């Protein structure tokens, strides 16, 4: 049975998706300012014109990658704070653990570059502000699922606090501070939702606090699914 031809909209969406995947890797490896749109298009299997047919430019493409990352992070309503994962467990993925970690850190650094650029541009600042609102709403969903009924703070307040702690810990880590590791971050997020002593373990001691472990797991999965290395061909 013959497969129905893809519609123009489906083809355009597939092109956009491929460009976003390629851009995520390029921004992570080369930074926001260092990434080249022609190279991104070529890595995705298109000409540079495909970028401008789907995005207004580099900033618009970067915002699309942020949108994709937020969607991955808070899919299916988020996660349960305190979940602990072996981020790169299992077979072939384990050998790529360090590379994926570097890509996660690299994109976080590129995001800092973009935020500094957007802060000086009214349109980009407004667009970035919209994403920050969506980000906090994602943490609010997590808070609503995990908060104590006796907590005097509302889910939106707890969500903002979770966002501040998780994103702030990542900023400290990127700045070279080891004051908060993955264990301390996990316990801190749980204390926001359930004040008082929480069950402790040594899991995550010394690991960079680059986002809650469950969130890093999701980012790692998205990167592994879309990134195969600069010299590897992409499937079409």
Topology at a glance:
Blueprint: H1 8-34, H2 37-44, H3 48-54, H4 58-73, H5 91-95, H6 97-118, H7 122-146, H8 155-174, H9 182-193, H10 213-226
Helix pairs in contact: 1-2, 1-4, 1-6, 2-3, 4-7, 6-10, 7-8, 8-9
Protein described:
The protein has ten helices and no strands. With 236 residues, the protein is mainly alpha-helical. The chain has a domain at 58-81 and 93-226. The longest helix has 27 residues, at 8-34. The radius of gyration is 19 Å and the shape is globular.
Concise structural overview:
The chain has 236 residues and is mostly helical. 66% of the residues lie in helices and 0% in strands.
Q: How big is the Rg?
A: 19 Å
Count of individual beta strands? 0
How big a fraction of the residues is strand?
under 5%
Discrete helix count: 10
Which spans have pLDDT < 50 for at least 5 consecutive residues?
86-96, 228-236
DSSP helix fraction: 55-70%
Shape: globular
User: How would a crystallographer describe the biggest sheet?
Assistant: none
Task: Please tell me the overall pLDDT.
Answer: 84
- End-to-end span in angstroms? 21 Å
Order of H and E elements: HHHHHHHHHH
DNA-binding region: 36-55
Keywords: DNA-binding, Transcription, Transcription regulation
InterPro entries: Homeodomain-like_sf, HTH-type_TetR-like_transc_reg, HTH_TetR
Organism: Occultella gossypii
């Amino acid at each position: 049975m013959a497969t129905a031809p893809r519609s123009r909209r489906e083809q355009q969406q597939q092109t956009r998706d491929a460009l976003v995947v390629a851009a995520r890797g390029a921004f992570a490896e080369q930074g926001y300012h260092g990434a080249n749109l022609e190279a991104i298009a070529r890595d995705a299997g298109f000409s540079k014109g495909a970028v401008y047919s789907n995005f207004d430019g580099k900033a618009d493409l970067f915002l699309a990658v942020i949108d994709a990352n937020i969607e991955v992070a808070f899919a299916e309503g988020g996660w349960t704070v305190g979940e602990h994962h072996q981020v790169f467990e299992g077979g072939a993925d384990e050998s790529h653990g360090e590379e994926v970690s570097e890509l996660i850190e690299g994109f976080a650094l590129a995001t800092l570059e973009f935020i500094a650029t957007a802060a000086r541009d009214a349109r980009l600042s407004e667009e970035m502000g919209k994403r920050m609102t969506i980000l906090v709403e994602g943490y609010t969903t997590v808070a609503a699922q995990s908060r104590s009924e006796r907590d005097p703070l509302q889910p939106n307040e707890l969500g903002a606090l979770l966002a501040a702690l998780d994103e702030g810990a990542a900023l400290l880590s990127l700045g070279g501070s080891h004051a908060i590791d993955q264990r301390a971050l996990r316990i801190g997020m749980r204390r926001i939702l359930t004040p008082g002593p929480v069950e402790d373990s040594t899991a995550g001691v010394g690991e960079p606090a680059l986002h809650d472990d469950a969130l890093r797991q999701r980012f790692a999965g998205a990167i592994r699914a879309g990134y195969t290395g600069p010299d590897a061909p992409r499937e079409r």
